[in-house]
Task: inverse folding
């Protein structure tokens, strides 16, 4: 990754050749794109070092002073920290070289590799990041890969984690694990087509993958694709692999398809703890009254009262209009158009 860190203003007039070195040294410098973000980024990680301590790095105040430290670090931790010094002044190529050398000397320590990935990410050189990770992951044992991944997760470096998992998916035996992480990430960002792409890849390789079917079910529910909800919901139920609110998802799909008896059957199968939610009770009430406008809604009352005890603001009369004579009369008028 060789790039011009700075570009100098071209000299438009002839100058004395004896003064040229001085003028070049003191000419205005334009930093690389996003340099301010790069120079102030808090995600670069220091290592305990003998020479280039954090205090020494912080003591350097100019890019010209920083350049005088090129090639001065000997030990791997010093090289790592010197790389951070170069980052602070947008000396990107120098930083890359120090991080690479540190990582080679400390192959069992994830910090230099994390810093190198961060550098590539900040300068938007994703292809270089992937090239480095391909080599790094192939050379690293599984425990070191996991350590690297956990540090990205803990630091909430989500977009770098996407790059990491994309490369991890090229390693035999790691495909499904990597695709699962990518699918969950894009699901959380509501990028449905990307999440679907990875979920489909998982299910092609592992048709009964529980988490993939579960995410497919949730996505179909959000997108109101009721046939797909039933396909994945009934599949999970059929293999005895329950996810939270499974019965609610299936019941909602049946209700939307006006199959109210099936909807009620699935609502009754739900665990007691999951019946204590407003959306569940709304669906239960809708399914009951859609099947029979005079249906008895009293079985819902204990769950509603538990919600009231937890701070729900609705009154029973507001939520269950058919419990009062006036409410029943109103419902009859609506039903018969009077």
Result:
């Amino acid at each position: 990754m060789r790039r011009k860190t700075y570009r100098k203003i071209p000299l438009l007039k002839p100058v004395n050749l004896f003064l040229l070195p001085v003028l070049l040294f003191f000419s205005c410098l334009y930093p690389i794109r996003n340099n301010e973000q790069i120079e102030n980024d808090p995600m670069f990680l220091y290592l305990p070092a003998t020479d280039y301590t954090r205090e020494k790095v912080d003591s350097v105040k100019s890019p010209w002073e920083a350049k005088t430290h090129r090639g001065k670090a000997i030990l791997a931790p010093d090289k790592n920290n010197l790389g951070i010094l170069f980052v602070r002044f947008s000396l990107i190529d120098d930083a890359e070289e120090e991080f690479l050398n540190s990582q080679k000397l400390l192959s069992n320590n994830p910090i230099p590799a994390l810093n190198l990935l961060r550098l590539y990410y900040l300068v938007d050189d994703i292809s270089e990041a992937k090239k480095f990770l391909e080599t790094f992951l192939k050379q690293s044992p599984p425990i070191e890969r996991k350590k690297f991944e956990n540090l990205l997760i803990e630091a909430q470096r989500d977009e770098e984690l996407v790059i990491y998992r994309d490369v991890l998916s090229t390693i035999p035996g790691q495909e499904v694990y990597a695709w699962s992480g990518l699918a969950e990430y894009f699901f959380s960002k509501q990028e449905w087509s990307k999440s679907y792409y990875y979920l489909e890849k998982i299910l092609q390789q592992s048709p009964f993958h529980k988490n993939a079917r579960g995410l497919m079910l949730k996505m179909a529910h959000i997108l109101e694709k009721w046939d797909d909800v039933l396909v994945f919901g009934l599949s999970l139920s059929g293999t005895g692999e329950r996810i939270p609110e499974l019965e609610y998802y299936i019941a909602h799909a049946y209700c939307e398809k006006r199959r109210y008896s099936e909807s009620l059957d699935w609502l009754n199968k739900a665990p007691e703890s999951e019946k204590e939610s407003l959306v569940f009770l709304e669906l239960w009430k809708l399914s009951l009254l859609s099947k029979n406008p005079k249906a008895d809604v009293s079985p819902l009352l204990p769950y509603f009262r538990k919600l009231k005890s937890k701070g729900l603001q609705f009154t029973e009369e507001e939520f269950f209009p058919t419990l009062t004579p006036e409410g029943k009369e109103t419902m009859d008028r609506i039903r018969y158009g009077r």
